[in-house]
Amino acid sequence: MKTIIRFSTGMFALAGVLSAALAQETNEHPLGGLTPGASSAKTSQPVFDTWEITGRTFANLNELTGYAKDGGFVVVGRFGDFHAPAKVVGIRTGTNSISYRRKNGSAGKYPGFDGFELKTVTLEDPAGNETIVVLRSHEKVVPDAVTLSKPVLSNPLSPTALVLTTNDPAPDKVTKPELIVASVSPDKLPVEDAWRLVEAGRKLSAADFSAGELKLQKDPTDLATRLQLLGHEGHGHPMSPAGVKLLLGVIENNPRSRIAGPICIVISAFDQQTFTRAIGLWQDFITANPADVRILGNAAMWMEQFAMVQPEFKGKSKALYEKVRALEPNNPDWAEHMGRAWLGEATILNAPEQTDQRIAAAKQCIQQFEAAERLRHQSSRDAYRMQSGESYLEILARASLLAGETNQAKAYATQLLKTVDAKTDTWNYGNLIHGYNSFLGLIAVHEGKPDEAAKYLLAAGKTPGSPQLNSFGPDFMLAKELLRLGQKDVVLQYLDSVGNFWGNTNKNAGEKNANTIRVNLNNLHTLESYRQAIRDGKFPADPKWSR
Predict the structure, then answer these.
(1) What residues form DSSP beta bridges with 121?
(2) Which positions ≥6 away from 22 have C-beta within 8 Å?
(3) Cα(67)–Cα(58) distance, rounded to whole angstroms?
(4) How far apart are CA 301 and CA 519, in angstroms?
(5) Closest CA to 8 of 395, 521, 424, 458
(6) Inter-CA distances, 333 with 26, 34, 35, Å
(7) Which of 217, 210, 220 is nearest to 179 (CA)?
(8) Which of the residues in the chain have pLDDT under 70?
(9) Residue 238 burial (10 A CB sphere; 0-12, 13-18, 19+)
(10) Distance between CA atoms of 478 and 10, rounded to whole angstroms?
(11) Residue 94 contacts by C-beta under 8 Å, 6 or more apart in sequence?
(12) Which of 24, 305, 437, 536 could bridge 460 with an S-S bond, Cβ 3.0-4.6 Å?
């Protein structure tokens, strides 16, 4: 069991942290989820998810009305006749009022809904006929009645301290920067939108970057701009100093945003120095805001991950989760986070003499997830599993494996893999393909079936990529295990597949953005260094091969 335990840590690290974000988003999504401190009874309504509905086809207007109602919205207006079947081609979001623009160029505004969240859903039939449906939230959007106490930081980060030397034109000559502007507040920015902003940042020109830097100097809480700049700078191992400052600036200026938790953890590439500085910031914020659930929850997530290299933080992470559970006893998310903390503890109990402790911790994880399920109303559980069911089964798969129940873990992972084909249009599809195949491959290694493990590795390499995989590359733990078993040719073949989405310089053909070209070239060189090390009979000297 020792081998699989040691290396299962990394397999679901990316998918697990992102699923944590999505699980959190299920109950806090600005399209109809809970506001902080709200009763868990509201989780009985499914979430009306932007990216799930985009591309969806409706047979009639009643079907769309019912879908919106389930997500907490009602239809309040329509422009254009509804021609079935109609496909959703765009969504806009606003508060108090909302503007719209039709294909024919006419525009208008829907005012008079103070305190409500509004949406316009644009649909088209196969002939191109357009319909715009206006939706209003069932209830008013109540702003968070929280006054954030900003601490005197032990490690202050000033946005003006970020000075980059470029050949940009003078700031007053920068016109029409191609920066995306978010339509929701930083605290409510959806996780999927955050990844799209990071990915978009890779294509920023030098002029756009300078314009974004000026925006941050004027408003350090501008999370959409910061994420795009972070996408531009947050690549490489280790991350550039500018990238680290931008990342830590998310924590300093937006500590209550869900992005400050799991998304920033992933972008950090688990760099220990970055983690150390981030933990210092979180400790300052905890001291200044001891009863702020979002801050405590985000800090607990960072400490949960940091416990992998600094075991003393596992107690601190669980203590914070216990505190937020006490503050929000009916919120099932915190039971799940506590379960993940137990899972993290079980993962690092690798020594043979720690077997009983590991099994006990893994069973605690399962118990916490069962408690979370009891807190969810049946309709809420169904919606939760429908939109991010991978999270629940992933945890059960890992916990079962750590508890010594290999067959059960394999059954869960196989079930997960069967669900992937239904998610081909989602941003997470590539992560799921790589993550689930890799996990099953590690189980095959544990079972002494290297040839089966090799098949799973090659299947993992067939992922089309994702915003995260394209930017930061995959986890190489299964590749490393197979390399230990002498499967050099298989690993090299897998790396060739990885090159299709990470370090693919063919994408540079016709590419005008210098940063995108630079990132692709850097990733290409990194992949080639892996290949050369393997040809020389060595393991690549990179943290991605040692976690």
Answers:
(1) 91, 133
(2) 191, 387, 388, 391, 428
(3) 10
(4) 29
(5) 395
(6) 9, 12, 13
(7) 210
(8) 1-54, 70, 112, 140-188, 234-238, 270, 377-391, 422-423, 505-513, 515, 546-547
(9) middle
(10) 9
(11) 117, 118, 119, 183
(12) 437
Distance of CA 39 to the CA centre of its chain: 25
Contact 365, 342 (CB under 8 A): yes
pLDDT for position 37: 28
For the stretch 42-77, what's the b/e string if a residue is b when 16 or more beta carbons lie within 10 angstroms of its beta carbon? bbebbbbbbebbeeeebeebeebbebbbebbbebee
Chain position carrying tokens 């009645």: 145
Q: SS3 for 99? A: strand
Look at the block and give the residue holding tokens 């799991």: 262
Instruction: Record the tokens describing residue 240, joined without a space.
Output: 């550039």
d(CA 355, CA 258): 35
Tokens representing 192?
């999927």
> Which tokens go with 276?
């150390």
User: How far is C-alpha 393 from the chain's CA centre?
Assistant: 17
Distance CA 21, CA 24 (A): 5
18 in Cβ contact with 466 (< 8 Å): no
N- to C-terminal Cα distance for the chain? 17
How confident is the model over 456-497, as pLDDT tens digits? 999 999 999 888 888 788 989 899 999 999 999 999 999 999
Q: Which residues of 527-539 are buried (b: 16+ CB within 10 A; e: fewer)?
A: beebeebbeeeee
**pLDDT value at position 53?**
67
Helix, strand and coil content of the chain, in percent to the nearest 5, comes to 60, 10, 30
Contacts of 455 (CB under 8 A, 6+ apart): 441
